[in-house]
Design goal:
α1 packs across α2, α6 packs across α15 and α18 packs across α25. The chain has 25 helices and 20 strands. The chain is of the alpha/beta class.
Length: 692
């Protein structure tokens, strides 16, 4: 593993944070914490922790010896001084004289000794950092170390490799008991450079940030070298050239078709047409695919995480599926449902076994797997958001890397099931996930066409604010990507000509590959052409129908295709127009296809209500946009004999209606679970355009 320490960078951190009033030891603590956090083979997504012992002034101006340790909710990769709350050191060390200390009392004692009462909760391993005398302490879940430790003979393997440079501590649940165990181990070997926590991770320490960091890199490099030597020794011989050819595997179904099926199968029905959905992430690189394609996948798949910290994110085992074949998705769906039922039954039995052991005091978590291994497709990770799904995917990747490395040395053997249960249902671990209420459209994926225009962009942003994952389609690729970026780091912006059926299919497939499926489609793209209907060129009318009708049909067909594959309903929403109901002179080229689109919406509502797909339309009028631009506003105002101000407010409320108003109507329709075949009018009041 490469040592990324740079004297120049260290100096830059010292100057930067020194200008903010922080001492050099805090600046360097931030620097090396980030070096560790940005190496995926060491820590992932909030894992690991670091600390520095220093002296700071309290409110009275007196110097106080403190432990600045990573706080809950912070990630080492982006940590700031605020993420290293200062805790009075002396009271922490006095706690270690106790025979026992409950988790609740430990957390309370740590909070009571914070210098800043508003600071985040210190790490659950704060007492471990406190008991060690070293100034700088680093803790990671290095894959290479875990590959050696997660073995039946892991303790002996680590002892042989690290010798007397590292003390080895048997697995103990993090918290007070682990701190006591570390104190005992360090008392027996006070000259070690770090600790191997068996089947948990590695600590290193030193008198300087550089020394502690350098020791971490050196110890992990030793572990990597041990694995590399084992791989060379156990490498299979080259097969003979006359070996019989392996028969070709049946063609695998496209991942874009498989993912919606899996996502739908994992959605939990809540009643009243509602589902608790999951968002998916697909990993199908060479390593992931090679693992999923193993002939012994059912045996090779892990029955325990590589470090207990991962259990809360990906549970203790994945769901192994059969290979989905092209043309065989119906059989695959049935098999998936059976395997999910078996997984849920297994999880329920696991919970009952261990809940009884701890007195029946726990409340079961959901039994939905977080990692699916699909031969020919790859690793599919699930989460309540795209961010959570990405985290689960990263942890699955790390698990596969570590498991394969462990197999080079011996046989992967994680912690016993009881220890994993205790960690999964530990209140302090559960707190990492947060318990805040989810946004109304969390766990749902929305696709908006014409998403870079005024109404489309406002709609995409409105759905993002309500918690949805967002896909923005627009003819202008760059504009689609700009709108997506505003909707969130993981939103997807794609260029798409909605009048091209192949492009629409490709865009929907890309959305499925990104998020696992689609739940809400806002078919919004359109354009207006003016001209008297009797003299309107045929080509203009046909062009308008291509965009303002047939494109909506193509989008709707793909929406239904994906939603039916998911089997969890959905919402198909159309941008109709006042012109569909109350045509204006010279606007026939626009109004005729819009009227057809309004009927199209009702036809889809009629034919797909049984699939749980709600189909509605928004009827808007006089919205400043690419359709109604400044030139057209001027033209229509003259035609009506009105000022532009009065033209834009020509409604009962005498208010101009904006793109945000239309966006809110689409959000309302997405949330209206018992409404289909409806039209929501957003025009400030126009009786002539009112529906009968």
């Amino acid at each position: 593993m490469k040592n990324h320490w740079s004297a120049d960078e260290a100096s830059e951190y010292t100057l930067r944070y020194g200008a903010q009033g922080f001492a050099s030891d805090m600046a360097l603590r931030v620097y090396t914490s980030r070096l560790l956090g940005r190496e995926p083979a060491l820590v992932l997504h909030g894992g690991g922790n670091t600390s520095v012992k220093t002296s700071v002034a309290d409110m009275a101006g007196d110097a106080v010896e403190v432990l600045c340790v990573k706080g809950s909710g912070w990630d080492l990769a982006e940590i700031e001084p605020a993420g290293l709350p200062a805790v009075r050191l002396a009271p922490l060390r006095r706690l270690l004289a106790l025979d026992r200390l409950s988790d609740e009392d430990m957390v309370n004692a740590q909070r009571c000794n914070l210098l800043d009462a508003s600071a985040p909760n210190p790490s659950v391993e704060t007492l471990l950092h406190a008991v060690l005398p070293h100034k700088f302490i680093d803790h990671t879940h290095a894959n290479a170390v875990l590959a050696l430790s997660d073995q039946a003979q892991g303790r002996a393997i680590c002892a042989e490799l690290f010798g007397d440079t590292m003390a080895i501590v048997d697995y103990v649940m993090p918290g007070f008991s682990l701190a006591k165990a570390v104190a005992q181990a360090f008392a027996l070997q006070p000259h070690v450079q770090g600790l191997i926590l068996h089947k948990h991770g590695i600590f290193t320490f030193g008198d300087s940030a550089e020394e502690s960091y350098e020791r971490m890199i050196r110890m992990v490099t030793l572990a990597e070298g041990r694995i590399a030597r084992s791989r060379v020794a156990t490498a299979p011989a080259t097969p003979p050239t006359n070996a019989p050819a392996t028969p070709p595997a049946p063609a695998t179904a496209a991942a874009a078709d498989v993912l919606p099926l899996l996502r739908g199968a994992c959605a939990a029905a809540l009643g009243d047409g509602r589902f608790r959905r999951m968002v998916a992430t697909l990993r199908n690189g060479p390593v992931a695919l090679a693992f999923c394609n193993r002939a012994d996948l059912a045996q090779a798949a892990w029955t325990g995480v590589i470090t207990p910290d991962h259990n809360i994110r990906i549970k203790n085992r994945p769901l192994v599926l059969a290979r989905p074949t092209a043309g065989g998705l119906d059989a695959f769906r049935a098999d998936v449902e059976q395997r999910l039922q078996a997984y849920a039954a297994g999880y329920a039995a696991y919970f009952e076994r261990h809940n009884a052991r701890v007195g029946g005091t726990r409340k079961t978590l959901d039994a939905t797997p977080r990692v699916l291994l699909v031969p020919g497709v790859g690793v599919v990770a699930l989460g309540k958001s795209k961010a959570d799904a990405d985290i689960a995917a990263d942890l699955a990747d790390a698990t596969i890397d570590t498991l394969v490395a462990a197999e080079a040395v011996g046989r992967f053997e994680p912690l016993p099931e009881a220890d994993l249960f205790d960690m999964e249902y530990w209140s302090l671990e559960q707190a990492k996930l947060g318990k805040g209420a989810e946004a109304p459209l969390a766990r749902q994926v929305v696709l908006v066409t014409g998403g870079a225009g005024a109404i489309g962009a406002a709609t995409a942003k409105a759905f993002a604010r309500q918690g949805a994952e967002v896909v923005v389609l627009d003819l202008d690729t760059a504009a689609a990507q700009r709108t997506a970026k505003v909707c969130g780091a993981r939103a997807l912006g794609l260029g798409c000509d909605v009048t091209d059926p192949q492009a629409v299919r490709a865009a929907f497939d890309a959305a499925c590959l990104r998020f696992g499926g689609i739940d809400i489609v806002v078919s919004n793209a359109g354009a207006a052409w003016e001209g008297a209907i009797a003299t309107l060129p045929d080509a203009v009318l046909r062009r308008s129908f291509e965009l303002n009708f047939f494109a909506h049909q193509c989008v709707a067909q793909n929406a239904v295709r994906v939603m039916r594959a998911q089997g969890s309903g959905g919402a198909l929403l159309f941008n109709a127009s006042k012109q569909a109901i109350n045509p204006g002179a010279g606007f026939g080229a626009y109004g005729a296809p819009k009227a057809a689109t309004l009927l199209l919406a009702r036809q889809y509502a009629l034919e797909h209500g049984g699939d749980g797909i709600r189909v509605n339309a928004v009827n808007a009028d006089r919205i400043r946009s690419g359709l109604l631009n400044d030139e057209m506003i001027a033209s229509r105002s003259v035609a009506r004999g009105l000022s532009q101000h009065d033209y834009m407010r020509g409604n009962l409320l005498r208010e101009e209606v904006g793109a945000d108003d239309v966006a809110q109507a689409f959000v309302h329709q997405a949330l209206a679970m018992k409404t289909t075949g409806g039209v929501t009018t957003v025009d400030g009041g126009n009786i002539a355009a009112a529906l009968r």
